[in-house]
What we know:
By secondary structure, the chain is α+β, with helices and mostly antiparallel strands. Among the domains are: 60-142, Hemagglutinin Ectodomain, Chain B, CATH 3.90.20; 145-199, Roll (Nucleotide Exchange Factor Grpe, Chain A, domain 2). 56% of the residues lie in helices and 15% in strands. The chain is built from three helices and six strands. A three-stranded antiparallel β-sheet has the order 1-4-5. It has a three-stranded mixed β-sheet with strand order 2-6-3, with no helix packed on it. A hairpin with a 2-residue loop joins β4 and β5 (188-191). α2 (60-116) packs antiparallel against α3 (122-141). Mean pLDDT is 81; it is low at 24-28.
Amino acid sequence: MSKDKKPTAPEQQDEKKEEAAPQESEKEINSEEINSQDLKSEKQPEKKAEPEKKAKKPSPAEEMAALNDKYLRLCAEYDNFRKRSQRERDSLYADIKADTLKKFLPVYDNLVRALEQPTADEAYRRGVEMIMSQFNSTMEKLGVSEIESLGQKFDPSLHNAVMHVDDEEKGENEIVEVFQKGFKMGDKVIRFAMVKVAN
């Protein structure tokens, strides 16, 4: 056999197939790259050019006016808070004072009963009268006053009617008898007067 032997027809076909195979694989790779590029381009939509928003910067005069308005509002809120706190303190003090004075009223009632009892001992009577006078003076200094009831017209904001009687000589809703005296401190009632009302 000579070295220059020509390949037969079947051998030539095999060589052509081998040469064609690498070209086909290259074509497949190229088509895969193209497909992946297409997918990327589909996933990333085109960005539209957004118009730039220009933020309007307030002028110094406008900033000053806004700050001044904020300051005035803050001052008004603080002033309202201060006044409200003062009213609450005053109200709390008045409530505690009225509650404390109410505890002393049974002592007043007993002094009244002691003075109503007849006694032959003038020194004893004079002593009770002096205690009662001192008690009344102290109550006046604390701003407590007696609620006038006898002969007055019945007022549900000051009196507590526990009995009713028909009497032609008396006016309508007139108080004819006081069972227990009432007291008030300013406009605040400490104890309602217990009374009998006519007609």
